[in-house]
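Progress narrative, work stream C.
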Amino acid sequence: MSGMQIFLVSVGGVALVLGALIAVMRIRTIYFGSSAEGVVVGQSTSSGGKVHGRIVTMFNPIVEFHHAGKKHKFTSSMGTREAIGNGTKVTVRYLPADPDSSAEIGTSMRMWGFPIGMLLFGGLFIGLGLFAPLK
């Protein structure tokens, strides 16, 4: 195996492990978690790269919700090109034992988009590392 193949397989392996860990956390959140109503209070922005020569801005909503009499705030792990307006009410899914790090907006795309993307990315890199003819 060449150095490039080892690199590709290593990066793919890390992505697969991260995707699997996040998927397990999401499954735990669905089966053992709670839900609450949250409110979008802001946006975190990042660059989504260039499309047709223009820089695309990605918006990750910042959401507040209440659990056990305390206010919790989190930033969604999935950004979109369109911002969700401040004051918009959303369903939040979270684990009651750890609401700060397990919370996510309870739509299927936001719950599953990142872990599925990481699993696909990892599989692609492992496939390239193992089966692509690199010289």
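Work stream C, second folded protein:
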Amino acid sequence: MPISKDDDWYRSSGWSAKDQAVFGEKISRARGNDSRAQYARLKAYALIDSNDRTKINAAVDLLQKSLTEWPSEFEQHSGETYAALGDAYRSLKKYELAATAYEKALTWGNVRHTAYWDYPEMIVTEGFTDLYSRALQIVNRLNAERDFVMEFQRFNYHAVRAVVLYEQGEANDSRREAEAALSAVKVKKSVFSRHPKVGLVPAHRYAKLIGRLNDILGA
């Protein structure tokens, strides 16, 4: 959805002095901490997506401020804020801090947010072998609960299992998982008729992991 003039203060990636002043003024007038936390998280994601290191650091500051100054009473909001913080740290290649933020996100009840997918995917993509068992634990739990709705979720589940099983010497099972993950990449239309692109696998984002899966199939 295009950014309108009414919502670009929290959805755009702008972070000039003027942008910050407008954001501060707008968020001060938001109703309650839950609204402020949500606006801060949306703005943080826009800053993260800019791929500009200065803006990503600003996203970290904004998310940390959200957690300390605008604590939410809802588990979903707190979990999603920590998940966003994990994404920000990962973008900065501060992987230990990212892992800590993701783990905190996972402590917030049974709310499903991006940390359940991004964290295990980060572990196998970056080759953190000491955390492979943790990655497998997370995705296996989601599979047991049949918590797949979108293709990128199916991709992450099978891709994580493919890499971990390969490292465990389970070559045949690993190849089957790699094939299942890559089949998700080929899907070009989602199950949501009104939003046919929602939930598809962004191949450019997962290029490194897709290359790893192809290596497994070629081994």
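Residues 32-49 form the longest helix (18 residues). No further action is required on this item.
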